[in-house]
Structures are given as structure tokens and as C-alpha cells.
Write a structure and sequence with these properties.
This protein has 18 helices and 27 strands. It is of the alpha/beta class and 605 residues long. It folds into 3 domains: 3-240, Glutamine Phosphoribosylpyrophosphate, subunit 1, domain 1 (4-Layer Sandwich); 253-447, 3-Layer(aba) Sandwich (Rossmann fold); 450-587, Glucose-6-phosphate isomerase like protein, domain 1 (Rossmann fold), CATH 3.40.50.
């Protein structure tokens, strides 16, 4: 959710803080603030509501040398979008300044207790409670105080604190929420994730839960239970270089256009395309274990990707596969099975409910597998096995290319398990050849988008949509409907066409268009028959159809996709449907990269 950033030593911190917040803005853009301090204790505090750019122009004329600083970009949880609720927050005596990512679930109780101690509050946030608590519990030094304070906090936090009376020192700690530290030639940077300032840094490490890191004059020390911890640095991957839009109007369009390359990058080193063989050592090791079924835990677009994977595992590997929403998995009865592989998927590897679900499964001694994009993330460190999607930096809120990366790796897993069971080698080779061809087909789709703008102009006039599907296209339809909702704020429902007659057909009328996915090899004739029931109610139909199929009497508008095998049909509608959502959003003057109320990384439940 929120993004926090900190800087210590050498140059004026304010420009670095604003740059860091700009790169973290996808984590929340309800408001932003910075706090800087000079070596002689002179402070700088500035806040602004909404985007980081509103903060940037307010601090542009700052010319002091604030060598330490903390900053925050907010996704509002406690309290409205106001400057008073904007971080950094401070104690009553204005000695302690703090930024926070996470949620303090027992903040109301703590606030009530502090009010009894004559503390007054200016904001509605849970974070201000922590600032006041630091003041109330302070004794002799900040490290001792923070150790005591965090024992009173329930649930997740990543905190950075500056004591005005010790301006050279920055202190941070975390539990649940992520915290990354970088070093450059003359500075230390700390952030909520790896994307924030990778163009300045070459190495990093991830702070572990309950650790405290102390920065002073560019030097750092890490403590856990008062014992100093030595940490090895990890090298920054080139794929997480700071993103640029290149020739595109939005980052979202740029990331959609990277999808064909992501498809192959996810499989590089795991498939030998010349010999049509699977070469992943991780999957080879998994195949040697006694695994009888798969249970998948995910949320959002990742959940929809796993729904498709469940079809693949059953069809290609003859393995039962159950899919669970991570937030509900936490509160359902867990029935552990030592012959089940529990797979957890998260773009960031920091998704709160996914992370907590891993803990439940690990406590029962079951086998865990991660699939994430961000190197060094918490979920990746917690599980027994895993694979990165290698999708590169995906910083804008609506996930696109990483979905392609997830699907690619999931298909690879199904093929690998299948090749050790009932799937014929010639079928594995055929699908590998088709995957390589699919990348070329995606590039052709991206080169032929003229019709999409025309369709978008017509359908931007509607407020409600049905997305209709059958069988293997379930996830694709759900994902396409999700993107329309995320980017345009229009209402979209998703149903199997056969289910319409059970009750959703009551909503069909000329002002409620239907987007029908009808691709070759996926019950296309049955889908066409169901759409006739829709047409009989005089509604508008947008037909997403395999090129060459002709049902002209059933649609008003058409978007054609290339023909692939049945196994690969979930991939082909996504690029044109994502681009359709982008175009509609532009026509409606929506912010494509930063949809309202959303954030990229959901690190709180």
C-alpha cells in the first residue's frame, strides 16, 4: 500500500526523497510528504494532497542541505485525504518524526490510553498514535524506546523515525510490511520496495521482521534482540532498472507492449526451444517428490491466472487443482495434506494475505512453492521452492505483462508435471513450439490496433457490461472485465454464457452490451447458441472471435484474435482487451496509470 522512503548522508536529501516517492507512487497517491533535517537540527516539513507532483513543486525552491530525511506517499486507510492526515507525523513535543507503511489494528485502544495521558491528536491516522507513543515511552535512547513501542503494536508496520535532537541518526524497523535498503557511493537509501531508486544503487538487502536498522553518517547497523546482525548484500538485477515510458503515452501501454518479450523471458533457461525440452532444475526436483495435487492461493489478477492454471494442471498433468482466494484462505479451516503442493502467487511477493497464508501452511509442515516477480521479496524467502516470472519492473497499478509472465510459468509447471505422468513427449514438444510462436502472434496483435480505438469510441458511451465465456476462457473473461473496471471505473459483470438463463439474463437490455469471448476449440458453437438468446433481447454484442470464424449475424462489432491451440487460447484475447480498456479510459479522461482508490502492492489486509 503506502510507500516510505528515507535518505542518509552527503547531499541534500529533499530531491532524493521526492524522486523516491515518484518511483513509489503506484503504492498510493492520495497524498505525499517529506521531512528533512540538517546536521545542526534545522528541520524541513512539507505535505501535499493527491499526487507526488503536487508536493514536488512545493519543495522546488528548497536550498538547504538536509542530509537526512524521510518521506511517504499515502494510500488512505485511516482518515480522509487531507494534509493533516498526510505523513510524516510527529509527536506532541515535535521531537520525533515518523513515516509508516502498514496498519496498526489496535491503534484506537492505544489512542484512548494516550488521551488519558493528556496527549492531543491532530489527525485521524493510526500512525500519529505511534509518534505519540514514542514520545510517551521514550527513555535514554531511541533504539530502546522503539523496541518497547513495537511490542505494543498489533499487525503490520514498517517505520522510519528521526529524533530532532540526534539529527544524524535514522532508525527503522518492520514487521509484516516490506523494507529494503540500498547503498550508493555516498549515501544510504531505504524504501518500501526495490523499484524506488534502483538507478542510483547496485546492491541491496531486505530487512527481516523485528529487526532494527540504525543509520548514522552513511554507516548502518542491524540489531535483532539487541544482537548485531551481519547481512550479505544482494546484487541489483538489471531488469529492475528505473522504468521509462519510451514512445508510449502511458506506462500501462508500454508494459502491455512488453508482453511478447515477457512470455519468452519467463521461460528463458527453463525451456530449450531448439530441442523443445524443459530444463528447469526446480521443476525437475519437484517431479522427484510425492506430489499428488496442487492447491493455489492468490488474489486479484494472480487469482484469475491460477484459475486458468487449474485447467492446465488437470488437462495436461491429470492432477487435481484447487484455487483459493488468499484473504479467505486465512479464515477457512485448513486441512493439511503432505502430498499437496501449496502454491502462492504474488507480483510483489509482499501481498499481506498471501504472506500470512504461507505461514499457516509452513506451520503444518506442508510443501510450499512461490511464484513472484520481485527478487528478494518476503514470500520468496518463506517458501520451499519457487520461480520468478522475470517480467521486469511493472510499476503502474493495473497488472498486465506480469500476468503473461505468471501464465507462462504456470503452463511450464503443468507441462513439467504432465511429462512425468500421462502427457506424451510429442505433445510437450508441440506445445513448446506453439508457445514460441505465440510471442510472434502477440507482436502482430500489437501492430494492428486501429480497430480497437474505433470500438472504444462506441463502447465508452455505455456504463454496464457483461463479459461472457465458456470453459477455459473463464479466467480470461474475468481478467478482461477486471481491467475495464480498474481503468475506466465502469461496471462489468462476468458470467458463463450458459448461466445467463439462470437469472443474469434479466439484466440484458439494449443499454447493457455483452462482450462475448468465442474462440476456436472452446465450445464455440455452444457459445454462439447462447449469444442468440442475448441478441433476441436486442442488446449490443462485441464479439471477441478467432480470426476466420464467421458469425456475423450474432455481433454488432468484432475484435479478431489469432488462432492458437486450445491450450493457449487464454492468452490471445488479453492484449486487445487490455488496450480496449486503456482507450476507453483515455476517452473518459481517466488516469490510466493511477486508477482512483487503488494501489499496486497490497501489504495490509
Amino acid at each position: 500500500m503506502c510507500g516510505i522512503f528515507a535518505y542518509n548522508w552527503n547531499e541534500n536529501s529533499i530531491p532524493f526523497l521526492v524522486e523516491g516517492l515518484t518511483n513509489l507512487e503506484y503504492r498510493g497517491y492520495d497524498s505525499a510528504g517529506v521531512f528533512g533535517i540538517t546536521k545542526n537540527g534545522k528541520i524541513f516539513l512539507e505535505k501535499a494532497t493527491w499526487k507526488v507532483s503536487n508536493l514536488a513543486w512545493k519543495v522546488e525552491l528548497n536550498d538547504k542541505n538536509y542530509k537526512s530525511g524521510i518521506a511517504h506517499t499515502r494510500w488512505a486507510t485511516h482518515g480522509g485525504v487531507t494534509e493533516l492526515n498526510t505523513h510524516p507525523h510527529f509527536s506532541t513535543n515535535e521531537r520525533f518524526f515518523i513515516v509508516h507503511n502498514g496498519i496498526i489494528e489496535n491503534y484506537a485502544y492505544l489512542k484512548e490510553e494516550l488521551i488519558k495521558k493528556w496527549h492531543k491528536f491532530y489527525s485521524e491516522t493510526d500512525t500519529e498514535v505511534v509518534a505519540k507513543l514514542v514520545e510517551y515511552m521514550f527513555e535514554k535512547d531511541l533504539i530502546t524506546t522503539i523496541s518497547k513501542v513495537t511490542k505494543k503494536l498489533v499487525w503490520a508496520y514498517a517505520l522510519w523515525i528521526i529524533d530532532v535532537e540526534n539529527p544524524d541518526v535514522l532508525i527503522g524497523t518492520k514487521f509484516g510490511s516490506p523494507m529494503i535498503m540500498w547503498v550508493a557511493d555516498d549515501a544510504c537509501f531505504l524504501s518500501s520496495d526495490i523499484n524506488a531508486l534502483s538507478n542510483h544503487c547496485h546492491e541491496f538487502f531486505t530487512l527481516e521482521d523485528n529487526e532494527i536498522v540504525v543509520l548514522e553518517n552513511w554507516k548502518h547497523k542491524i540489531f535483532n534482540l539487541w544482537k548485531e546482525v551481519n547481512r550479505e548484500w544482494e546484487e541489483m538485477s538489471q531488469e529492475f532498472a528505473t522504468a521509462e515510458k519510451w514512445k508510449f503515452e502511458t506506462f500501462t501501454e508500454k508494459e502491455i507492449n512488453e508482453a511478447p518479450d515477457v512470455l519468452l523471458n519467463a521461460l528463458k533457461g527453463r525451456i530449450n526451444f531448439e530441442e523443445k525440452t524443459i530444463t528447469s532444475e526446480t521443476l525437475t526436483e519437484l517431479n522427484e517428490l510425492d506430489i499428488e495435487q496442487i492447491e493455489i492461493v492468490a488474489s486479484g489478477s494472480s487469482y484469475f491466472a491460477w484459475v486458468t492454471a487449474s485447467y492446465w494442471f488437470k488437462e495436461l498433468a491429470w492432477m487435481p487443482c484447487d484455487v483459493r482466494i488468499s484473504s479467505e484462505f486465512l479464515y477457512d479451516t485448513f486441512l493439511p495434506n503432505k502430498k499437496t503442493l501449496y502454491v502462492f502467487i504474488s507480483q510483489s511477493g509482499e501481498t499481506a494475505d498471501v504472506r500470512e497464508s504461507v505461514k499457516i501452511v509452513k506451520e503444518k509442515g506442508c510443501l510450499t512453492f512461490w511464484l513472484v516477480n520481485v527478487v528478494g521479496s518476503t514470500v520468496a524467502k518463506m517458501c520451499d521452492f519457487g520461480l520468478y516470472t522475470h517480467s521486469g519492473i511493472e510499476i503502474w497499478v493495473a497488472s498486465t505483462k506480469n500476468v503473461i509472465g505468471q501464465l507462462s510459468v504456470l503452463l511450464l509447471m503443468a507441462l513439467s508435471f504432465g511429462s512425468k505422468r500421462n502427457l506424451q513427449i510429442k505433445e510437450v514438444r508441440k506445445i513448446i513450439w506453439e508457445i514460441e510462436e505465440l510471442s510472434s502472434l502477440m507482436k502482430i496483435q500489437l501492430e494492428n490496433t486501429k480497430n480497437i480505438r474505433k470500438v472504444a469510441e462506441k463502447y465508452s458511451k455505455y456504463n454496464d457490461f457483461f463479459f461472457l465465456w465458456r470453459n477455459l476462457l473463464f479466467w480470461t473473461a474475468e481478467e478482461c472485465a477486471l481491467k475495464l473496471k480498474e481503468l475506466t471505473y465502469l461496471h462489468a459483470e462476468c458470467y458463463a454464457t450458459w448461466e445467463l438463463k439462470h437469472w443474469p439474463l434479466a439484466l440484458v437490455w439494449p443499454g447493457f452490451p455483452c462482450v462475448a469471448l468465442n474462440l476456436k476449440w472452446v465450445l464455440e458453437y455452444k457459445t454462439a447458441s447462447n449469444i442468440k438468446e442475448v441478441r433476441a433481447r436486442n442488446t449490443t454484442v462485441l464479439w471477441i472471435i478467432t480470426k476466420g470464424l464467421d458469425n456475423s449475424e450474432l455481433y454488432d462489432d468484432i475484435i479478431e484474435v489469432p488462432e492458437t491451440s486450445r491450450i493457449l487460447v487464454p492468452f490471445t484475447p488479453m492484449i486487445p482487451m487490455w488496450l480496449l480498456s486503456v482507450e476507453i479510459a483515455k476517452i473518459l479522461w481517466k488516469d490510466v496509470d493511477k486508477p482512483q482508490n487503488l494501489a499496486k502492492s497490497v501489504t495490509v489486509e
